[in-house]
Amino acid sequence: MTSKTATQLNETGEIQPETLRVLLVDDNAPVLRFLASAVASNDCAATTASTAEQALELLGNAPFDLVVSDIKMPGLSGLDLLRAIKGTQPATPVVLITGVPSVNSAVFGLRHGAYDYLPKPFSVTEVRELIHRLRRDRAEGNGNVTYPAGLNEELQRRQGGVEVLSSIGELALQGLEPARFVEKVLEKTLANLRCDAAIMVLSDQEGKFNASRMGQPAMVGELLTLLHAHFADVVKAGGRETYALTNKEHGFEALAALIPGVGDAVGILCMGRDARTGAFLPDEKGLLLGYAQTTAVALQKIVLREQIEKNLVDTISSFVIALESKDPYLKGHSARVSLYTGEIAKVMGMPTQDVVLYTRAGLLHDLGKLVMLDNILRKPRQLTEEEFEIVRSHPVVGDKILKPLRFLSCEAKAVRHHHERYDGKGYPDGIQGEAIPLIARVVTVADAFDAMTSDRPYRAKRPIAAAIDEISRGARTQFDPVIAEAFVTIPPARLKQISRQFDLRPAEAPGPAARLLADAE
User: Fold this and answer.
1) Distance of CA 300 to the CA centre of its chain
2) Residue 369's closest CA among 419, 410, 420, 404?
3) Rounded (10°) angle between helices 178-192 and 282-325
4) Span 421-461, pLDDT tens digits
5) Cis amide bond preceding 121, omega within 30
6) Alpha-carbon distance 352 to 362, whole Å?
7) Is domain 152-302 annotated with CATH 3.30.43.10?
């Protein structure tokens, strides 16, 4: 933004002087006084600031026609000030003051939109020539009003910052696990703030801390050390402002913000980046605070969603268990299939969150039996063709029950396809091989093993070793060979321990429907 007073050329082509508003920034008081005197002698109104932070406050109150700033200052540097000005007032010319060791920084500044630089020591004449050139450029319309590459980066970062704030809220509605949500937040924050390392520390209701980290390992390690030393200070800030963990001697910049209101827990979002990239500007600090606050709201939604989902799964599971309890030959079946499925997932090297998911699928796999009438399940006579089809429809029925519950979409695949066979001779869809969802192929093995090692009215349960051999023989026909191979690596002692869950004592013989279900398993 420039002054409303336009610089004009008179009839002879000479520059008609105008009073320029100039902001001078330097932490060296003598240099600042010299600059103010030199600028004032050239028909300019000088305003001074001893830090870049103070300069940014002044810039927010009124526009200036020129900013002259030293590069090396405590706190934000002259290059940081340049970035900030080009992000909010791109047409304002910025001149950088530099010593010989800082020439490279000055050149960097020119590439990122600086109007020029003054090498130390400079004279009144050099200042007069600078002001004269600026007035001529303004008169000819060649002032520093172009948008350099650095500015495009700034605008993209600002736009990206708003998008990240919005996307963090959207992530909370996607049904992600907390760990995956945190990973996404760190990923987006790293990219937007151009950082090299990020940490999010969260404590649970019991006060146990878990740190999720991303970026350069060495810097992540230093961030953890700094965060441990300044943890109380960050918490004390109360989420109202960010807390700087480093100074210029560290070689990198680190900033932390409290994640407020995560139940009774404490959270901290911490970012670090190479000092050569520049210090964190005020708008970047504001973005980090915004990310932390939005993350807090999103985490609350996730915690609430998880509680609701858990209660719903528990309710559905209790119905399945209650149904099986009516039949002594099926009692505990789904609970054991759940445990077997979890063991298979573990030996296959699946991550903890997938083990939990597979275990839940095993518990829900026979959900479709809920809608089957007891008079069909316990019918002592031969089933009619219609009743036979009803019994075989329980995988499809279970899938329909779970369809509206998007957070159980993976479990629904196991419910629908746990009676498919690897050779394609199963039901309800007759699919084969890897076309069968992996989760269903795992549950199929667990389901079959429990059926073999449980008592039935028409046969006694098979020994653990014999059932394991049967699983091996069924590889490539009934079972996925990879999953069958994984299953046989589970210690027999663990399989025996699971098989003893629930006391199976038949009180009455089941009907044909119950026998059909048992045989199918």
Assistant:
1) 15
2) 419
3) 160
4) 999 999 999 999 999 999 999 999 999 999 999 876 556 88
5) yes
6) 15
7) no
Spatial distance between the Cα atoms of 192 and 184, rounded to a whole number of angstroms: 12
Looking at 3.40.50.2300, 2.120.10.80, 2.170.8.10, 1.10.3210.10, the CATH number of the domain 326-520 comes to 1.10.3210.10
Domain positions in the chain are 8-146, 152-302, 326-520
In which residue are the tokens 């020539």 written? 129
Of the chain, the percentage scoring pLDDT greater than 70 comes to: 81
For 447-483, b/e burial (b = at least 16 CB within 10 A) is bbbbbbbbebeeeebbebeebbebbeebbeebbbeeb
Q: Which two tokens stand for residue 35?
A: 């600059």
In terms of residues, how long is the chain?
Answer: 521
- In the CATH scheme, what is the homologous superfamily, with its name and number, of domain 8-146? Response regulator (3.40.50.2300)
Question: pTM (2 decimals)?
Answer: 0.54
The pLDDT tens digits of the residues spanning 2-50 come to 333 344 445 455 545 678 999 999 999 999 999 999 999 988 999 999 9
Is the separation of the CB atoms in 252 and 219 below 8 Å? yes
What token pair was written down for 456? 């039935």
Measuring CA to CA, which residue among 492, 443, 449 is closest to residue 474?
449
Q: Is the alpha carbon torsion for 100, 105, 106, 108 positive or negative?
A: positive
